[in-house]
Amino acid sequence: MVSFKVDLRSPRRLYYRRVEEGKQYPVLCRRLASLNEEFISHKSPSAGFDFTSGKRIEQKLLDYNQEAERFGGYAYEELSEVSPDHKFLAYTMYDKDNDYFRLSVRNLNSGALCSKPQAERVSNLAWAKDGQALLYVVTDKNKRPYRIYCSMIGSTDEDVLLMEESDDNVHINIRHTKDFRFVTVNTFSTTSSKVFLINAADPLSGMTLIWDCEGIAHCIVEHHQGCLYIFTDAAKESQSVDYHYLLRSPVDASSSPRVWESVFLDDGDLIIEDVDFSDTHLVLITREGQKFRICSVTLPLPAGKEAVQLKDLNPYFLPLPKYVSQISSGPNYDYYSSSMRFTISSPVMPDAVVDYDLSNGKWNIIQQQNILHERTRILYGTVSSVSIAENNSNTKNSNSTNEVNVEDDNMWNDLSEFYACEHYDVSSHDGVVVPLTIVYSHKNKKENQNPGLLHGHGAYGELLDKRWRSELKSLLDRGWVVAYADVRGGGGGGKKWHHDGRRTKKNNSTKDYLSCAKFLIERGIVQENKLAGWGFSAGGLLVASAINSCPDLFRAAILKVPFLDPTNTLLYPILPLTAVDYEEFGYPGDVDDFHAIQKYSPYDNIQKDALYPAVLVTSSFNTRFGVWEAAKWVARVRELAIYDPKRPILLNLTTDIVEENRYLQCKESALETAFLIKVMES
Description:
This protein is an alpha+beta fold. The chain contains twelve helices and 38 strands. 17% of the residues lie in helices and 34% in strands. The chain has an eight-stranded mixed β-sheet with strand order 31-32-34-33-35-36-37-38, with helices on both faces. It has a five-stranded antiparallel β-sheet with strand order 26-27-28-29-30, with no helix packed on it. The protein has a four-stranded antiparallel β-sheet with strand order 1-2-3-6. Helix 6 (507-522) packs across helix 7 (538-549). The model is unreliable at 1-9, 41-48, 383-395 and 403-407 (pLDDT under 50).
């Protein structure tokens, strides 16, 4: 995927990763944007000029296959930032032997590693002083971010400690503003959240408190032409709010505490999910019900004006395909560019990485898996009125009006011609409406005869991943229905939706999931005794808890690196847990929380002498949740449940980090698909 990073004093460069044939890990490269596609790539020379062809070629900055040799065969990168002057790359790699991330800084001109900083246990970093200084955060032995250091690149002086948080309940996070003028320092605990500001031009000059509120709050600060903006979900006047809102305040405000003004009036129907800034535009990702949109507003905003409705600022709505399930803002490093990049996700469309030109409304799909579209046409024997070549035209124009509605499936390589996407509202046990999304093949769906796969997560306020996944295509083409239950505890419904599915209310997530499962069967969408569940990480807890409650409702289940023994893990954490984990699953020292944990814990509620569905549990020795949790759960189910050779309880363990190994990902996906097909056919 291409990432932009620009310094106005130097030529524009494109940074991107690509995978060489036969290699496991990608290579990080860059080239001048002016070259466009007129470049070639050879193993040697690694950069500069190719005298054989007479063309300049890309520069290979970092080969992660070589990094894997440094780190015990793994190349698991968490952070990666190019300096504003394009001279250095700061990145962290996972050290498997020590179980932490190690910081390295590489000189992009020579390719050599810098002698310092080379810190251990690094969780965060931010460039300052135009690339001459690097700020980074390190964690303690319990993986709590607690110290900020400043390292002067090229200097032999010791790194300077800028901040140390001694309270074990407080965590630290840093980031730079989009214009690189400031570095923001966030400190947060269950009781308070604060934001400090560091002048990036002089990072050793100290920090200023600009925001202080009670409780855990999400706070992102940006700077635009002398004005600070904060996007937060902090309580207003001691009253909890359900969604994020945008505030602003002059940088040089002298009042103490600082006065913040609302940018937009509250609108219960219009939810602002995210914001992004450039030098000329403010871009907002909004949601009305289940409908996502992107709009741009010209900057600067009117000065000295009270909060307004979004429509009063003449927002320009950018084109989107149908059935959008998520919009993710790209890196958008080029603060002065008129273009912004977003990833558009849909259950019936491969992810589209799209550049929107905010100055003229043009848009361009930069990256998308579109060969799937042509192959699907061949499989289904259909012919489109628009050729594939027309589908992939380089530039599209949005309408000239402020309200654009570009939903041409062909322009987006949308697969809704072959696969349907439907939304339902399912009533849960307490009358709360739970969104349910289903995807199926137009050609292969048959009433009351379809196997089904129900996904769920319901934790940390995170959106359920409903993106199109190529590995599910083989199931859809065999007549399967793929469903997604947006249960409480997850994202998409605001803070209350999240809080109603955590701690003492965690069981709501399980009951929401079961309500969706029963809905699929009762409506004839999925054939009875042919429903499978699927959960990843905390979603594995959800699905396993549902199986304990109604084992006869499911024919099969897949639990990927699942959290299955919360009682013991929360009481006696072998692996470090954070305050966020306890806020999510409960504090075992609290009597009410402890009883709630025991009620939803999959390991503690396995039914004796019950016929369980076939279950495939996959886990790794390199995961946040101990591999022993999966092994204990599998052993106890085998011991207590009724044995049926057609309903095996399987455990698949790896020593690798599957998520960072594309070959292992393909292998594991194939195993899961084969397991589901085999179990349903038996």
